[in-house]
Each structure stands twice: as C-alpha cells, then as structure tokens.
Amino acid sequence: MMNTILEIKNLNVSFQRKDGGVKAVSNANLKVKKGSIFGLIGETGCGKSVLAHSLLRLLPENAKTTGEVIYKDQTISSLPVEAIRKLRGKEIGLIAQSPGEALNPLLKNGAQVIAPMRLHRNLSKKESWRTAVELLEALDLPDPHQKMQEYPHQLSGGMKQRVLTALGIGGDPSLLIADEPTKGLDVLIRGQVVEVLQRLKEIKETTILLITHDLQVAAHLCDELAVMYAGEIIEEGPSQELFKNPLHPYFKGLIDSLPSNGLKPIPGYSPSLVNLPNGCRFFDRCPKAEATCGKIPPEIKEVTTGHKVRCRFID
Question: What PANTHER family does its record include (predicted)?
C-alpha cells in the first residue's frame, strides 16, 4: 500500500480584481499516493494549473489562498516563503507550460538545465553537464551538446519543451508537477515526453502530478484522476474506473468529444469564475438538469471505493 505523499485539504484560490474576485479553485481536496501518477484534467481555464502552482506559491500577488497543503507529513502551506523556495526543484519539481515564456532568453540552455543539478544535487559543473546531456539524449533532443550551448530562441517549440522537461527533473525531485507537458507538441514528441514521465515513475519512483487537457495522455499515464470544471473537482478516482464508468455528465461529455467517439461537442460555455452560479456549475450545459440543480450546489460523494462524483443524480 503506497503512502500519501501529497494531501490537499479545502484549498481555495481567488484573485482580487477591480471588477470583482475570480474564484479559480473552490474547496479542492486531493490525496496523491507516493510513486503514482495523479492526473488533474479539464478544459482550459478550469483552475487546474492554478491549483498546481498554488502548491509552490507561484501565483501573482493578487492571489488569495486558503486551505491546507501537506507534503510528506509536513504542512507546507504554513511555511514561510523562504522555506518553500528551498523545496522547489529539490523536493518538488515543476515542468511549466509555455516553454517560450518559462525559459530565460538571456541564458544558454545548458546553463539553465544544469542549475538545479548543481544547486540541489551538489554535482560539479562537469558532472552536471554530462548528466544534462544524458537526460536530453533520453528526451531525444538532437545534438544535445550543441543545443546546450545555444539560447532558447534558437530552438524549435518541441526542443524548448524537452529542455524545460530536463530543467524540471534535473534536481531529482520526489514529486514532479508536470503542467501541460505535451501541449502544442506533435504526436512523435508527445509520445517521447509521455515515455519519459512513465520511466521516471518506474525507474526513479518519482510521484507525478500531471496537469493536462489531453484525455488520451491521461488515460495512458495516470493511476488516478481528478476532473475539474469551473474551479471544482467534479469527479475523482482510479483512472481505469473513471474512463470505463464515467459518472458526471461533464466528464461523459469530455469523453464523447474525443475524435475516436465522434467529436460530439458539449453545448454551451463554462460559467464565469467572477460570477459563479448558486447551484451546480454545470447546470446550464447539463442534459439531465432539473430546477433544483440550479439552486443547490451538489456535494461530492463516494459512489464506489475511491470513485467520487459531484452530482445529485448519482447515488
């Protein structure tokens, strides 16, 4: 039985703006088992990346966070910022999305990749360079020696993503947050990134929190899943169980929208996070909705062992 490495309790994240507060994450509760790949899935803007970045305090100054984050039995949500900085890269790594923005344009690629190796693993410059080359070769970056001596703007989008992946895992963290690591990549490179994440789990027993909107990647990689919609977790459980027996109408709609299932879109739009509805947040788009759904917010409940859903129609 794997131990829990990360637990999130009643996490809320909002952003203060002149036109009102944005409720990006509402009352999130999660447990991530050591050595597993836990997927957090949902459409763009549902709050999954905000949730992940809040764990490392990587949110803008106008963010307000409440709740509890426990990592390796330590409540890190109450730690000072300096202590959190020491966790970043060494204990908890991050593969950020948008490599064009995440990589420093003024530093050579090699300098960026070896930095966490030297800082967190006490490797010499020579050792860290060799390790970085091996890592980039494993990620199938062509001519890694040369590419490490170049700047980010000299690389293609796929090459930047591989450099960013190496940067995230270079410190050998116990927990890796992979934020949309396959976004914008072609099928071949996407497969290589997926393979690297799988190898990290199997060989190094790295725990991975995978943030993705790609259901096929999630189905292939993840042991457990949580589905987010409009800032809420609406379904959660073992990955195979969720894909075999999706219960929430939104998650069913996501699966039906896959090309292999006929590309059936979910009608309507997600609600504004500035002005959320009183009842179920999927009310306006749900084919099963009744008047009560729009008035009373449903609670998340366990239907079978480990399989939870936020819907009043599910017993």
Answer: NICKEL ABC TRANSPORTER, ATP-BINDING PROTEIN, OLIGOPEPTIDE TRANSPORT ATP-BINDING PROTEIN APPD
Please answer whether residues 58 and 230 qualify as being in contact, where contact means their C-beta atoms are separated by less than 8 angstroms: no
HSE value, Cβ hemisphere, 13 Å, CA-based, for 225: 28
Q: Does residue 97 lie in a domain region?
A: no
Is residue 47 within 8 A of residue 234, CB to CB? The reply is no
Whether the CB-CB separation of 173 and 192 falls below 8 Å is answered with: no
CATH code for the domain in which residue 214 is found: 3.40.50.300
Give Cα 224 distance to the centre of its chain.
13
Cβ atoms of residues 197 and 208 within 8 Å: yes
pLDDT digits (tens, 9 = 90+) for 65-114: 999 999 999 999 999 999 999 999 999 999 988 777 889 999 999 999 99
As a whole number of angstroms, the distance between CA 127 and CA 277 comes to 55
- In Å, the largest CA–CA distance within the chain is 66
Q: 47 in a domain, yes or no?
A: yes
Does residue 138 form part of some domain? Answer: no
Separation between Cα atoms, residue 303 and residue 229, nearest integer Å:
19
**d(Cα 26, Cα 47) in Å, to the nearest integer?**
9
CB 12 within 8 A of CB 182: no
The amino acid sitting at 190 is R
Kind of pairing between the strands at 175-179 and 92-95: parallel
65, 76, 74: which is closest to 10 by C-alpha? Answer: 65
**Residues 69, 62: contact at Cβ < 8 Å?**
no
Helix (H) or strand (E) holding 194: helix 187-204
Rg (CA), the chain: 20
| 37 falls within a domain | yes
* Overall average pLDDT of the 224-247 stretch: 97
